[in-house]
Inverse folding.
């Protein structure tokens, strides 16, 4: 590796840390439907805007010893962990794509006419990195007992289809990237979507026992009666939640994980990943039904979703290593 290769590789790690800092904002604000831009980063305790030198990924948390400069409120260690994990993700994906030979890859790579500013190698880094960062954000949101919104996966889906249209099957020349987008098999991709949908359905139904829940018609009548009571009491109509956060939305985390993995990795590797998640989810589901009293509910399904997404994150990294060693 020459100096140019080292500097560019370090730049990818730094970019990953910056993206991780923004990912912390996404994890906190997106499920709450808050703006990702305004207001700027601030302490949730005292509301003071964070200074630029206190917003350096990982380092600022270490220098401040995990506390706010203004009110000394503790800062969760998850912030530097997410930033460090994002830096490792983007940096290692860039190394897997280039093999540490960025000068040769960029000089020999073909320039895509769809994306004139990006070479094929850079596009691959963006595609794989966006998939992993989206998966990381979904797991963190679910762990916080927040429903990951569908919008979270939009950048990953858009970039992966741009990658398929622009690149297709990467060449096998000496300057070809080590980690390339394989030729998509529609049959295996469809199977992955079906299995991902089953896993999503299984996790979305991880709720209280049916005998403890009123029927849908009864819930609607109860909601209407509650709204009428509010109008009569306050004179204004306010929107009241009619279900728990997990019941208000049907996320597409496992569908996205399975569908994008079927494009990024070899079909057999992707199917092993998604079938493994399905069987693990089924095992946990059956175990919860056998071990718990139905009146106590069926467990914290959002935490279970977070754990399974984390397993998918680890399994996807295993798929990356297999692709590189192939």
């Amino acid at each position: 590796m020459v100096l140019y290769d080292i500097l560019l590789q370090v730049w990818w790690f730094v970019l990953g840390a910056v993206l991780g800092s923004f990912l912390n904002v996404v994890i906190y604000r997106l499920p709450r439907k808050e703006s990702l831009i305004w207001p700027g980063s601030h302490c949730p305790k005292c509301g003071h805007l964070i200074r630029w030198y206190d917003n350096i990924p990982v380092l600022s948390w270490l220098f401040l010893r995990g506390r706010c400069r203004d009110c000394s409120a503790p800062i969760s260690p998850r912030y530097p962990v997410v930033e460090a994990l994002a830096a490792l993700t983007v940096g290692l994906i860039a190394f897997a794509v280039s093999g540490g030979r960025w000068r040769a890859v960029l000089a020999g790579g073909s320039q895509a006419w769809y994306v004139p500013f990006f070479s094929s190698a850079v596009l691959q880094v963006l595609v794989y990195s966006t998939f992993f960062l989206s998966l990381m954000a979904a797991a963190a949101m679910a762990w916080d007992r927040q429903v990951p919104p569908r919008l979270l996966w939009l950048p990953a889906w858009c970039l992966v289809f741009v990658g398929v249209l622009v690149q297709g099957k990467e060449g096998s020349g000496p300057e070809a990237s080590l980690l390339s987008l394989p030729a998509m098999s529609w049959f295996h991709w469809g199977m992955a979507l079906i299995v991902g949908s089953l896993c999503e359905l299984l996790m979305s139904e991880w709720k209280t026992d049916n005998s403890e829940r009123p029927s849908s018609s009864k819930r609607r009548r109860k909601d209407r009666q509650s709204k009428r009571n509010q109008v009569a009491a306050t004179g204004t109509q306010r929107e009241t939640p009619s279900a728990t956060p997990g019941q208000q939305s049907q996320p597409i985390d496992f569908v996205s994980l399975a569908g994008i993995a079927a494009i990024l990795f070899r079909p057999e590797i992707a199917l092993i990943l998604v079938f493994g998640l399905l069987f693990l989810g089924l095992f946990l589901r059956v175990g919860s039904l056998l071990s718990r009293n139905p009146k106590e509910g069926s467990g914290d399904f959002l935490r279970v979703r977070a754990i399974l997404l984390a397993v998918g994150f680890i399994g996807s990294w295993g798929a990356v290593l297999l692709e590189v060693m192939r």
Notes: Residues 1-108 form one domain.
